[in-house]
Design a protein that fits this description.
Layout: H1 2-15, E1 25-27, E2 40-45, E3 54-58, E4 64-68, E5 71-77, E6 80-87, E7 95-101, E8 104-105, E9 109-111, H2 119-129, E10 131-134, E11 138-141, H3 151-167, H4 189-201, H5 211-227, H6 233-252, H7 254-260, H8 262-265, H9 272-286, H10 289-301, H11 325-329, H12 335-356, H13 371-389, H14 395-405, H15 432-437, H16 452-457, H17 493-508, E12 520-522, E13 525-528, E14 535-542, H18 549-559, E15 564-567, H19 569-573, H20 577-586, E16 590-593, H21 614-630, E17 640-641, H22 650-658, E18 662-663, H23 688-702, E19 707-712, H24 727-736, E20 740-741, H25 744-748, H26 756-767
Parallel strand pairs: 14-15, 14-19, 14-20, 15-16, 17-18
Antiparallel strand pairs: 1-2, 2-6, 3-4, 3-7, 5-6, 7-8, 7-9, 10-11, 12-13
Helix pairs in contact: 2-17, 3-4, 3-5, 3-17, 5-6, 5-9, 6-9, 9-10, 12-13, 13-14, 13-17, 18-24
The protein binds calcium ion (2 copies).
Length: 768
């Protein structure tokens, strides 16, 4: 009997049990997911693991938010005996979460509609940092850490910047001038950067170049002449002439040039793709049918991207990886041309999908040197094909390529330096700046993983470096976050430029089109929202006193103003306060946290209070949320936080972001928050009249657009002259001055207000 039991027990362990896999990991896109988008993660495990269900939890409170069975087994792969694709697309709440599968936890997963805001600025900033030369005579960008100068790479980067801007000009901001100084110059920053490239490319002596270079010059100049028509009219006309001149030279010299000097200068083998793109752009400048014929002829020689059909191709062998020409020519009014290119792209994508089906990450490129060039190129190919044909056959592969870049890969690392800021990103890039100064410039996509087979073909032996990533290396894919690994961990300027396009189209096609964050920040906390809007947000903070309750509530109701209230855990636990808070919820106000005991988090200079560690801060906040929960407010319904005494620093705002919440404080200058002072404070005391005068004075001199006015829910009994008694007058005068009062959701536009249905569902569940 005893024996049988043991056997049964062992049997259970071996068959049903272990989600406790040794080396089990959940790989996710660290940048995050749009609420309405497809959301996938990959579970990899070195042991045999059965996975049938996963749960999703809030990253701060650990609250269970969803239980899902949408998991697909993938089988075994190299050293990973079990692999699963976790599909959590049905989960659409915004915030910070994690997935739990057995005893395996994912990193923090961010779901938000505004994921892409400012990301392209970072990438453009990286390209800017690669400028070499002086501002007067110009220069080029280093194409790699060895500080080479390459006309093909410079032309390809410039072209991609112009192309991307031309597709979605609305996405790009103007924060800096041509020299990168924080001084808007009326030119989108992506164009400032493209202009740097153009200036140097204009100096290249095309007569000593071959069609590989000249084709790229023509395409770039012709596209630039179109894109810059309004911004730089004279330059635009000049570039059009130059493009035509270079094209005719290149066209006449194809046979003399192509065989002789191609191989010495470059490893780039194909030039017909470059000449095709050149002819295409010239056709779109003057609609001369000879150019169209040339474009079709050159295109016939290279109908599909060759690297999709090859294995260990060299970095520049089939450069640039993506030829936009077929997509541009599909717009020509000719059904035959359109159909032909559509079929070619379809075949290329089918071939890529065969490769993708061979690995759990669904990656459809062979991992050779500079694989991230191919990953971004294939993504852009999938996207553009889908956009132009409406065929969604390859959308899963497209998403997988995007997720791979940002961490859904065997190592769980985002391949872009410093993006996302709070993620796991390359810490030891093979870049000269890092080697010389230890500084990592954000926004650079590194070369990416390589297969062991292709690594052997390089002059490098298979490299091994000690580190956490070694256990995830496979024959299929090797990557090291190591400064000496120039094959996989070297920042790559043209892959970065290609990634700009990828992020841009994803941002432009997101369900809610917010391209810019118009909030103003101080040490990472929002202290003013969109100054273009004649709107004000009112917030209250409560810890010790409640004497303002009745007056504040009736005033807000009378004026139909929705405000935000931040209450400490101590406040919420005090007898009688729950009732008040419930009434405020019923009135439609926002209720959020202000820490558990309302203890100072930092001093007036922003220096952290002693012992203030991330875990202690977050644990304290968690307790505040636990009391809110008892009043029916989940963390997802309270994403804004107001720190005690409005004191905080960069770390505290960052910790808030990690937890999926936003730190908000008052806009300085109006003294509204000094309504807590009392006469014994002597020269620091402010009477209600002084505060009211001050608010209206700021209004007259500056306007109060986007202002956050913060008041107290109650104040020291020593203060007899309570400001809340005059709240109605303040709101009235501001309304008369034309201001609207708004809630923090619409004010900041950072996250959407949870829908009422979600509350109802939760209530029903908790009753069961
Ligand atoms: Ca600018
Ligand atoms: Ca080429």
């Amino acid at each position: 009997m005893m024996k049988k039991r043991i056997y049964l027990f062992l049997y259970l362990i071996m068959t049903i049990a272990p989600v406790f896999g040794a080396g089990s990991r959940i790989r996710i896109n660290q940048l995050g997911y749009l609420p309405e988008a497809t959301k996938k993660a990959v579970f990899i495990s070195e042991s045999n693991t059965k996975l049938q269900v996963i749960t999703i939890h809030d990253a701060l409170t650990n609250e269970l938010c969803a239980t899902l069975q949408t998991i697909q087994p993938w089988g075994s792969f190299d050293k990973f005996n079990s692999n699963y694709i976790i599909d959590f697309s049905s989960f659409k709440q915004e915030g910070a979460f994690y997935i739990k599968a057995g005893d395996t936890y994912s990193p923090t997963i961010y779901i938000n509609q505004n994921l892409y805001i400012n990301t392209t600025d970072k990438l453009i900033g990286y390209i800017h940092s690669q400028r070499f030369g002086d501002d007067v005579s110009g220069g080029w960008w280093y194409d790699a850490s060895n500080k080479n100068r390459s006309a093909v790479v410079n032309a390809a980067v410039t072209y991609q910047l112009l192309y991307t801007y031309n597709q979605h000009p609305e996405v790009f901001s103007d924060l800096v001038n041509f020299y990168g100084k924080k001084q808007p110059n009326g030119i989108p920053d992506i164009i400032d950067e493209a202009k740097w490239g153009l200036d140097w490319l204009s100096k290249v002596n095309y007569k000593s170049e071959n069609p590989v270079v000249n084709g790229k010059l023509v395409a770039t100049f012709a596209l630039a002449s179109d894109v810059l028509k309004n911004l730089f009219p004279a330059l635009s006309a000049d570039l059009a002439t130059r493009a035509t001149e270079i094209y005719h030279f290149a066209r006449q010299n194809i046979h003399t040039a192509s065989l002789n000097n191609l191989e010495d200068i470059l490893t780039e083998e194909n030039w017909k793709d470059d000449m095709q793109l050149a002819a295409t752009h010239l056709y779109f400048i003057n609609y001369n049918s000879e150019y169209l014929q040339d474009a079709l002829d050159f295109g016939a020689a290279e109908p599909v991207p060759q690297w999709i059909f090859s294995n260990c191709d060299k970095p520049l062998q089939f450069y640039p990886y993506l030829n936009w020409s077929p997509f541009l020519l599909m717009q020509v009014e000719n059904p035959l041309i359109k159909k032909n290119y559509q079929h070619n792209m379809h075949i290329a994508l089918l071939r890529a999908r065969l490769t993708a089906q061979e690995n759990p990450f669904n990656i459809g490129v062979s991992l050779s040197e500079n694989s991230n060039n191919k990953i971004t190129a294939l993504h852009n190919l999938c996207f553009t094909y889908r956009k132009q044909t409406g065929d969604t056959t390859f959308v899963n592969m497209e998403d997988a390529l995007f997720n791979w870049i940002f961490g859904c890969n065997p190592w769980g690392i985002s391949m872009v330096t410093g993006l996302p800021e709070n993620g796991l990103t390359p810490q030891h890039p093979h870049s000269k700046i890092y080697i010389e100064s230890d500084k990592i410039i954000s926004g650079a996509l590194v070369n990416g993983a390589i297969s062991n087979l292709c690594l052997k073909n390089t002059e490098t032996e298979r490299q091994t470096y000690d580190g956490a990533f070694e256990r995830y290396q496979t024959e299929w894919a090797i990557y090291h976050d190591h400064v000496n690994d120039f094959i996989t961990n070297q920042p790559n300027i043209d892959a970065t430029a290609s990634l700009i396009h990828l992020l841009t189209v994803r941002q432009a096609n997101g369900e809610k089109k917010e391209f810019f964050d118009k909030n103003q920040y101080d040490r990472g906390g929002i202290n003013r929202f969109n100054p273009d809007k004649k709107q004000i947000a009112i917030i209250f903070t409560g810890h010790q006193y409640t004497d303002g309750y009745k007056k504040i509530r009736s005033t807000l109701n009378r004026h139909k103003v929705k405000a935000s209230f931040f209450f400490s855990g101590d406040f919420l636990r005090k007898a009688g306060n729950a009732k008040k808070v419930k009434k405020l919820i019923k009135d439609g106000h926002y209720i959020g946290p202000a820490t558990n005991h309302y203890e100072q988090l930092a001093d007036w200079n922003g220096i952290s209070a002693s012992n203030m560690r991330k875990t202690s801060f977050l644990n304290d906040l968690k307790e505040n949320y636990a009391v809110l929960k008892k009043l029916g407010i989940s963390k997802q319904q309270a994403p804004f936080f107001n720190p005690p005494f409005e004191l905080y620093n960069d770390s505290i705002s960052k910790w808030c972001k990690d937890a999926g919440i936003y730190l908000v404080r008052s806009t300085p200058g109006t003294y509204s928050n000094l309504d807590y002072t009392f006469p014994e404070m002597r020269e620091n005391y402010y009477s209600t009249k002084e505060i009211m005068d001050r608010i209206m004075q700021v209004e007259r001199s500056n306007g109060l657009n986007g202002y956050i006015l913060q008041f107290h829910f109650g104040t020291n009994p020593g203060r007899k002259d309570k400001l809340y008694n005059s709240l109605s007058t303040i709101i009235g005068s501001l309304k008369n001055a034309g201001y609207q009062f708004t809630d923090l959701y619409s004010a900041t536009n950072l996250t959407s207000e949870p829908k009422p249905e979600q509350h109802v569902q939760k209530k029903n569940k908790s009753k069961k």
